[in-house]
Design goal:
The complex is a heterodimer of chains A (about 270) and B (about 110).
Chain A lengths: L1 E8 L6 H20 L3 E6 L5 H8 L3 E7 L6 E3 L5 E4 L12 E5 L14 E5 L4 E4 L13 H14 L5 H18 L2 H12 L1 E5 L16 E2 L6 E2 L1 H11 L12 H5 L3 H7 L5
Chain B lengths: L2 H7 L2 H20 L6 H11 L2 E4 L10 E2 L1 H10 L4 H15 L5 H5 L2
Antiparallel strand pairs in B: 1-2
Helix pairs in contact in B: 1-5, 2-3, 2-4, 2-5, 4-5
The chains are: A alpha/beta (about 270), B mainly alpha (about 110).
Chain lengths: ~270, ~110
């Protein structure tokens, strides 16, 4: 298993739902996931096709956040190309992958196929948009829906259990419901009501892998690496062959100050 | 009350009438916008241009995008998709009638 996140953001400008979902996922959720320390691979736009999706899925990501259109048995990518089909696909490849869909109806049938855990919606998902701003990310009416749905992803990727993440997601819907007017809040209430989890409620997603050790540059070449590697490189590449030199000459031929040689592990006093 | 029971406890006609009244109120407010507070005016302006969007995969490439008035028209004329569009309206009406507590949905 690769502890990393796979996302789909099929931004089709002719499709308002896809445009909004892609923009919000890319600008709100993905930066948060990266900041948390997870590697993210985002399949964007025309790359959201079956061949490229299947190739990525085979890499066995620990988490898949799918945004796109859906129905009871299918989840779609760019231009409604089918990425996941309950009747055709082999879902054993998701043995170690937690799956979260922001899509219509996929929890009705498709969601049951994922062997580890799944979060989705069992009926048509609605959200409101203001259409007063060209930038969906500035759309005040749309924010409550995406922010509420993403709360599940943020919670489970922060170490909460599957059931705790579902509760956090519902609580976020409630928070926005309480702040919203009567026209828009009905969709928040409804969307929360069709939220559907499957799989072990106690499942916990693994923590992000530790960050790679900091790299140090070699002062005399382009070599870079962790401190120990740079030390070995300097000794092997830039230091003279000490054993062949008379002891008295060694500190001078080398040219490196004694304190620096000591730091590198040089045995010459 | 179970969430699914809301859909049968509230009749289609009642939900459609409830939504019609709300859309009417919105229209009246829009026409009388100068009498409203700045905050209300901003909200009305936002809602008059607002759309309801669904993320359902159709056979074609179109997404459902409707203004609040169009939603009402779909409900009244029982056009394609009305059976889904009426569900959020029924839920809101159930809350207003005290049949459903938001906590029953949100679990808090």
């Amino acid at each position: 298993m690769k502890i990393a996140v796979l996302t789909t953001t099929p931004d089709d400008w002719g499709d308002l739902a896809c445009h909004y979902g892609a923009v919000w996922t890319r600008r709100s959720l993905i930066p948060w996931i990266r900041e948390k320390g997870f590697e993210v691979f985002d399949l964007q736009d025309a790359h959201c096709n079956k061949a490229e999706f299947d190739a990525e899925v085979k890499k066995k990501y620990s988490y898949f956040k799918g945004f796109g259109h859906g129905n009871k048995t299918q989840f779609a990518g760019y231009n409604n190309r089918i990425l996941q089909d309950a009747a055709k696909d082999d879902f054993s490849v998701f043995n170690e992958t937690a799956v979260s869909h922001l899509s219509c109806s996929t929890a009705a049938e498709l969601g049951k196929k994922f062997p580890l855990i799944f979060k989705g919606y069992r009926d048509v998902y609605y959200f409101m948009v203001a259409r007063t701003t060209p930038d969906p990310f500035q759309d005040k009416l749309a924010k409550p829906y995406f922010d509420s749905d993403f709360e599940y992803d943020r919670a489970i990727l922060s170490g909460k259990t599957h059931e705790e993440a579902i509760a956090a997601c519902k609580a976020k819907y409630k928070e926005w419901y309480d702040k919203s007017g009567p026209y828009e809040r009905q969709y928040l209430l409804y969307d929360a009501s069709i939220l559907q989890p499957y799989g072990n409620p106690k499942y916990v997603h693994p923590a992000p892998p530790p960050p790679p050790p900091p790299e140090f540059p070699c002062p005399w070449s382009d070599f870079k690496g962790p401190q120990e590697e740079v030390q070995k490189h300097v000794l092997a590449t830039h230091c003279p062959k000490c054993p062949e030199l008379p002891d008295a000459c060694k500190p001078f031929v080398c040219g490196l100050p004694a304190w620096f040689r000591k730091l590198l592990g040089c045995k010459i006093p | 009350m179970k969430i699914e029971e809301v859909y049968t406890a509230i009749s289609d006609a009642e939900a459609i009438e409830f939504n019609r009244k709300r859309v009417e109120i919105l229209k009246v407010k829009r026409e009388a916008v100068l009498t409203l507070s700045l905050e209300e005016r901003e909200q009305i302006e936002l809602l008059s241009k607002a759309a309801v969007v669904e993320a359902d995969k159709k056979t074609g490439l179109t997404t459902g995008v409707w203004s609040l008035e169009q939603v009402q028209e779909i409900l009244e004329k029982k056009l394609d998709g009305w059976q889904n569009l009426i569900k959020p309206v029924k839920m809101e009406l159930a809350v207003q009638k005290g049949l459903l507590k938001p906590e029953e949905v949100f679990g808090t």
